[in-house]
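Narrative of accomplishments. A recurring question from our advisory board has been how the design workflow behaves on a single, concrete structure rather than in aggregate. To address it, we present the structure tokens for one chain from the evaluation set, followed by the sequence designed for it. No filtering or post-editing was applied between the two.
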């Protein structure tokens, strides 16, 4: 799954990501509400000459959580020590990390909030235990980026990578990037390859379209895996509702992959709906796939029940 060109997860070919990472809050494009709140938090901490409150960032992969944590440290003029949950599963590992932060001093865990700032990031806020979540004074949710923010990101990345690109070419890449900066950057690199081999190196609309079509990333950024999922709901389950386990088995995917990787963007597009009785393909999905819309027998009354709250 991580091999999909449109996977939001970091892959091998994202190795150049560091060069594209924004360093300052001003370079961080979009997420205006988060940035505004963060600016106030940072400024207040600086005025009081205090450590920043703990910050928890959550949202789908590739939307800029790691980038934002680096920016937070940068803006506070602080060093950042990065680790991950799996890496500190053992209490001893955490202790050694804290020790390193304080040059050999041992800290009580209860004192952490006074001495250092913890920035946590997660794609699954619902999986965080409440007592842990409650330790974070500031909790920000990152959302999918709108097209204009993505256009901005593609233009910035093209400049850094010295890629020649016109506005229409840039917009086409932004449109197919699934609201995700990481994917935008990856598509840009692939289209650049295509432009160099098949065209004169310049990314125009025609070049971007040809390259992305060849890569089987469609007009809305869907790939074959997404289309297989939607078509399964429509063809095998009359448009739904179908339980996620049944759906997973029918397309030979893991339930987790469907929930964490495939669904979020399809829900965002409004191609898929999650209901208490299972997943439903919407009219928009039929239209996108060029299939005649047939509300399934399971549809009437479906919307009377409240939709599942978003995790
Ligand atoms: N707001 C943004 N502005 C510009 N580039 C961004 C932004 N957010 C993410 N990116 C780009 O996308 C890449 C992936 O972001 P990252 O912070 O690693 O995402 P996450 O940690 O949420 O998975 C970064 O290397 C960066 O180049
Ligand atoms: Mg990250």
């Amino acid at each position: 799954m991580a091999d999909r060109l449109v996977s939001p997860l970091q892959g091998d070919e994202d190795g150049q990501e560091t060069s594209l990472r924004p360093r300052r809050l001003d370079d961080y494009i979009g997420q205006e509400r988060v940035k505004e709140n963060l600016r106030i938090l940072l400024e207040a901490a600086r005025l009081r000459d205090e450590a920043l409150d703990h910050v928890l960032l959550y949202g789908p992969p590739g939307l800029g959580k790691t980038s934002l944590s680096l920016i937070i440290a940068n803006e506070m003029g602080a060093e950042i020590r990065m680790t991950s949950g799996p890496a500190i599963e053992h209490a001893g590992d955490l202790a050694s990390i804290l020790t390193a932060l304080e040059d050999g001093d041992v800290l009580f865990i209860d004192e952490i909030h006074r001495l250092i700032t913890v920035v946590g990031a997660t794609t699954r806020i619902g999986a965080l235990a409440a007592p842990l979540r409650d330790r974070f004074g500031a909790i920000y949710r990152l959302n999918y980026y709108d097209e204009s923010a993505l256009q901005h990101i593609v233009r910035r990345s093209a400049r850094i990578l010295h890629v020649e690109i016109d506005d229409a070419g840039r917009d086409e890449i932004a449109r197919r990037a699934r609201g995700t900066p990481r994917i935008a950057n990856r598509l840009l690199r692939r289209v650049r390859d295509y432009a160099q081999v098949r065209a004169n190196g310049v990314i125009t609309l025609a070049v971007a379209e040809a390259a992305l079509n060849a890569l089987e990333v469609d007009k809305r950024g869907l790939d074959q895996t997404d289309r297989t999922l939607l078509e399964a709901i429509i063809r095998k389950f009359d448009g739904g509702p179908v339980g996620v386990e049944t759906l997973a088995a029918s397309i030979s995917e893991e339930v987790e992959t469907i929930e964490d990787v495939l669904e979020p963007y399809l829900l965002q597009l409004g191609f898929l709906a999650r209901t208490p009785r299972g997943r439903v393909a919407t009219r928009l999905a039929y239209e996108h796939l060029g299939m005649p819309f047939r509300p399934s027998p399971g549809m009437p009354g479906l919307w009377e029940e409240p939709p599942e709250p978003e995790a």
